[in-house]
Amino acid sequence: MANRDHTRLIHELTDEYTRRFPRSATLHNEAELRMIDGGNHLVRLMEPFPFRLGQSHGAYVCDVDDHKILDYWQGHMANILGHNPPQITQPLAEALQDGWGLQSGFADELQIEVARLIAERTGAERVRFTTSGTLCTMYAIMLCRSFTGRSEVLKIGGGWHGAQPWALKGISVKQGSYDHIESEGLPAHIDSETLVTRYNDVQALEDVFAKHGDRIACFIMEPWMGSGGSMPATPEYMRAARDLTRKYGAMLILDEVIAGFRFRAGNLGAMYGVQPDLTTMAKIIGGGMPVAAVAGRADILALCGRKNGEGRRVRFDGGTYSAHPLSLLASKLMIEYLVAHEDEVYPRIAAMGERLRKGIEKVFADRGILACCTGHPNSAVPGSSLASVHFPATNDLKLSCPDQVGNPALSDITLRETVMKLGLLVQDVNVSHGIGAVSMAHSDADIARTLEAVDHVAKRIASE
Ligand SMILES: Cc1ncc(COP(=O)(O)O)c(C=O)c1O
Questions:
Q1: Which of 139, 168, 257, 278 for mutating ligand 1's site (highest number of atoms within 8 Å of CB)?
Q2: Which atom of ligand 1 is least distant from the CA of 259?
Q3: Domain ranges of the chain
Q4: What is the pTM of this model?
Q5: Nearest Cα residue to atom 7 of ligand 1
Q6: Domain topology for 7-77+342-462
Q7: I want to staple 439 with a disulfide (CB 3.0 to 4.6 A). Which of 49, 82, 458, 459 is the partner?
Q8: pLDDT for res 398
């Protein structure tokens, strides 16, 4: 199905969407007068304009045009209990009423409790907080470069670690390749210092280590590829990542900004039996608030400590709002809830994820359209609440790598990113990159409703 022309269908859907969301359309004109492109984050700024939110509860968000939209974006996949869950909002509201929560900038007991919880659930020796996934991957890389005295950073083509200098190469395919820098304004040497390899390709990993191994400071990878296509690392790949980094004296950073607490009440690396040198986490651990953490070996994290003399310190420092009290309260409540309800939460969202993925594949197959979902579990990860849908050109592709789903020559990206997005939104279902994440607030009825809506989109694609 790759490379078909969807202009007419997209035109129709854009018209329907514009008619359905008139107040958002008007507000977008105003937004563009004050903010570049009318907003602050590329993935939130869909074409022709984003719908603008009002209240949100559980699986649903309400917009300014009074729709109740079933949501699979769920706060960039952070809101595993749904939007504004009372388990978190009520204690936060009570704390604020009691005059506690915004007094940031001090040491407190809560920081110790949350660091202890994260360490216990991830096997980390030390934890340091910051405010975003982007910052924690940047600090983790700085720590590894200092620890090893090496400069090269290895990442995966299609891997997204936030917009920071060492992560702005190899995010998207251009002319069949990931080997390019994707931002202006970076230091000149960043291109040669950032190496890109292929996900789940053990041979490619061996080759890059054989060539650059003694210069690689760290290999940063997502054990579950998120925006690159929602797919797990194979157990063989994770083992190779650990073995090769050890063999060549490089550090292994598992970027679990999405994966942390998504598949179990702890890190995903543990499900593979792989202990990284550092783990980066954000999203779910914030309980809906901006909390991020670098967790891992004490000897590496010690490099940002005061006792690490002048000049040799890694300035993983500052952050007016780092370890912010109200945010850490949300973090503590979320982590404690997930630990206490681990046996209930993860099987439930995985079962709904399975129904959704299998249901979507069937809906498209029944309409004669070749579509496959990623997000399926594997032998290391028994269940998954994540899903994406792809439209490969041929059905001999076993999807395990971002280039298969990010390369327009191999997969119809317009169907996934534009037709699915608009086609579902005009039916009040919001998805991201095909689908997104199931939360505890979603119900079987929501999944059934989603499958009906997907069928409606499939029917329109089939009759294009
Ligand atoms: C795997 C991964 N790492 C890092 C980031 C950056 O996190 P943030 O958006 O909190 O800066 C993201 C964001 O989606 C992510 O998915």
A1: 257
A2: 1
A3: 7-77+342-462, 87-340
A4: 0.97
A5: 133
A6: Aspartate Aminotransferase, domain 1 (3.90.1150)
A7: 82
A8: 86
